[in-house]
UniProtKB/TrEMBL annotation:
It comes from Grammatophora oceanica. WD repeats lie at residues 69-111, 112-153, 196-229, 297-328. This is Pre-mRNA-processing factor 17. GO terms for molecular function: mRNA binding. Residues 1-26 are annotated as: Disordered.
Length: 330
């Protein structure tokens, strides 16, 4: 059970944030052409406005594990792919460090050290030039990905559980906290510009959808799903049902028509991402054990396959259309 929100608010923030540092592990930060180490390898297809540029990019079910990245001293809480190209990985570790890895070179490129407790979540902005790390030490940090410089430090004396950038302006990001609130920060001034306070328990997941303007969908330990208009502190819709369980992870389908939630009754639930936001009760993915764990969900870029971890350390792949499990990896 989460204990973070029971701690007194000033417990760890009294001493101030940890001293930030960074270490570069690659061969050189710029190559002979002057390209940064972050530049994608040549010939890589990119997602333009989340539409695949390359026609031949058909996705297949993976057959075997091709590489294991090692380097964190404790568990890894989050992995994020670099926006649009996916040639870099950002990992948030419980050792208080964030690392960026090169998928092509299969090595760690830069380590970002700036938290005195484990990092709970990390998120790239929409061009990958900066990222935010949210830690159990109650601080959030905005980092420059290329140089490892800390641009800003944020705190509201609650533990940040999830962080998401606003899709239309990377100067704003929202944080779901252990004090049941969701807050919007201005990245340039470090001020809170809006509070959303309707959940009755710590907030676990946030996803943005487009439906007559940008809407934000949040879930919490109170087993509710709330839909909010951007920058309006009152929810426009409650999704609550006696049979629903808490959903610690939400992911948007690449078609942007649906979003899925990892429900703690060992299923993945599907909801419409527009209109009535109703649950698609006939479309359920099951066969994995996740109760008590917050296992992440991901889609293949063409939306054909759904992937999730589980509590036994297995990786599960389903067919999105038929909801049939295709593969399990240990």
């Amino acid at each position: 059970r989460k204990m973070a929100h029971l701690l007194p608010p000033s417990n760890s923030t009294r001493n101030g944030p940890a001293e930030p540092s960074t270490k570069f592990h690659g061969r050189e930060e710029f190559d002979y052409k002057g390209n940064s180490w972050m530049a994608p390898p040549s010939g890589l297809g990119t997602l333009k406005d989340d539409e695949l540029e390359m026609d031949h990019h058909k996705c297949y079910v993976p057959k075997k594990c091709v590489h294991r990245f090692t380097g964190h001293n404790k568990g890894v809480h989050r992995i994020r792919l670099f926006p649009r190209t996916g040639h870099l990985l950002l990992s948030a570790g419980l050792d208080g460090k964030c690392k960026v890895w090169s998928v092509e070179q299969k090595q760690v490129m830069r380590t970002y050290i700036g938290h005195s407790a484990g990092v709970r979540d990390a998120q790239f902005n929409y061009d990958g030039s900066t990222f935010v790390s949210a830690s159990f030490d109650r601080y959030l940090r905005l980092w420059k990905t290329e140089t490892g410089q800390v641009l800003q430090t944020f705190t509201n004396h609650a533990v940040p559980y999830v962080v998401k950038f606003y899709p239309h302006d990377s100067n704003f990001f929202v944080v779901g906290c252990s004090n049941n609130k969701i807050v919007t920060y201005d990245a340039t001034t470090a001020e809170i510009t809006q509070e959303y306070n309707h959940h009755l328990a710590p907030v676990n997941a946030i996803v943005f959808v487009e439906d007559h303007g940008t809407k934000m969908i949040t879930t919490s330990d109170d087993k509710k799903v709330l839909v909010w208009e951007w920058d309006i502190g009152v929810p426009v819709k409650y999704i609550s049902d006696p049979t629903m369980q808490s959903m610690p992870v939400l992911t948007l389908h690449p078609s942007r028509q649906f979003f899925v939630g990892q429900s703690l009754d060992n299923t993945i639930c599907v909801f419409q991402a527009q209109g009535r936001f109703s649950q698609q009760r006939k479309k359920k993915f099951s066969g994995h054990i996740v109760s008590g764990y917050a296992c992440d969900i991901a889609f293949s870029p063409d939306g054909q396959f759904l992937v999730s971890g589980d509590g036994n350390g297995k990786l599960n792949v389903w067919d999105w259309k038929r909801t049939k499990m295709l593969q399990k990896f240990k």
